[in-house]
Give the backbone structure.
Amino acid sequence: MIFVGERINGGFKDIQRAIKEKDASIIQRWAKIQSDAGADYLDVNMGAASNKIDDFIWMIETVQETVEIPISIDSNKPAFIEKAIKVCKHPPIINSTTADKEKLDQIIPLVVEHNAGLIGLCMDKKGAPQDVNRRVELGATIFSEAIEKGLSEDRVFLDPVTMPLKFLQEQADNLIEAVRQFTLLSSPPPHIISGLSNISSKAKEMRLINRIFLVMCIEAGLDAVICDVTDEELVNSAITAEVILNKHIYSDLFIKAYKESRSK
Amino acid sequence: MEIPDVKQSWTNPINEVTIGATKEEGGTRSHTITVGGVNTLPFLYFEGNIPHRPVIAMEVWDIAPPGWPEELTKYFSDVWNDPGKWAKKCVDDFEADLICLRLQGCDPDGKNKSADEAAQAVERVLKSVTVPLIIWGCDNDEKDNEVFPACSQAAAGERCLLGTITEDNYKTLIALCKADEHKLIAESPVDINIAKQVNILATDIGLAPEDIVIYPSTGALGYGMEYVYSIMERGRMAGLTGDKMWAMPLLADIGKEVWKVKEAVAPEEEVPGWGDYVQRGLLWETITGLVYLQAGTDIFIMRHPKAVKELKKYIGSLVKKSS
């Protein structure tokens, strides 16, 4: 499982304040907490806190001064991505591109050049998909463009667009079916990722919904997630799901084994 | 037609484990032996790095072994009352890479030798040969825990490979390894999950993963060999893809398993049609060794000098000249 820590995001009030006041300590604290919790990547997103590229670069550099974990560059602006990718110490993932041709043409060469990974969001100018087929069609478009332009399967992350259960209940099941079909795109298949917290947006029992939905997606073939990595029950559930699917060798202390295997 | 590229890339190399310490390193060995370090499956030189060749330890006991067949006694009965001489013969005449001293004499159901006597045997072997040493207990937990402190101390700083720890008995030996700077063999009963569990338990109380060699038990040809093979293969692949609790070198105890099966030892008059038993036992050990070699074994423990020679020859034919 690839865990991407979601917390360094201008949508959170403390991060918003950190960006506005250039308070590195708040960002460093979240970098450390998520790193200790076992994140494989740290997502960095300015949200609406700023629209200045310098602020974004400052955030990334602040994270990199604190931990040695690669960054997930969370921006939909190609100009930002282009600058940010250059300051990354470790190959980052780009979060994200849509399936629009001009976007793919702009972003994929950057990803190839910097040995990065790419999250392909299964939507386009016409909006978010409302059914399984549209998701798979958009996913296949991104995947084939990426491969054609020189990315290998293991650097492509397809994101079938997670929507709130509370408002778009039927989309959760559609998403799971799309995940299942993505696994058939190639052998080995691309990574499949979800921005998990969207599923429980505005709901009660957020953690329970996140956890069960993640486990169901893993069963369908999902192998990466942007989530609250400090939610230990969530992380342990994901690890357990992978053990049940025989992706890791069982031992009585399998949670510990998984975590120790990743900490160097 | 284009031939497809079948190379796989593995993300996690297997740990290197170094056995033996030279004078400069605080021991008395003439050289050290390092195993592991691979980042591909056995002998796939086109795919990855294989920095060290598999090695063969020959078995020496602290007593004259009762019940060994004529095919073995004829090589060792002149020296087996002295583990030092026995070890020397294995190194000088049969080119053993290491010596595995098995403290079978300490078995409470056998001669029940004392810890001091065991330590003396260790000292004898260390004085007689300069190759690195494996020290194996008598496989009785209680007695091993009594005997090993003296043996570990007698070989302090020599970076021996001590064995074995199991899921139920690991604390004493780990403490000794840490105190006297030895390496450890982690044993499990043909069980991929328990193999992992022992390593987690061991590292949890402070043993470095780089100090561990995995012994997943050994089955002779015809006696569960394929089970162990599949465990070694799956475990090694897990190690190569990031499971740190399986990213360790592998050990196979070949001689002990082979020389107790009927096929290796029964004389021809007892089993007409099975062929010359001199050849049969030798072949049984060689073939069992060959299979474990393909499974990824890094350290072999063997008995028959000619089987050792054959396996070495075969390893030589597979190892790339430059390595």
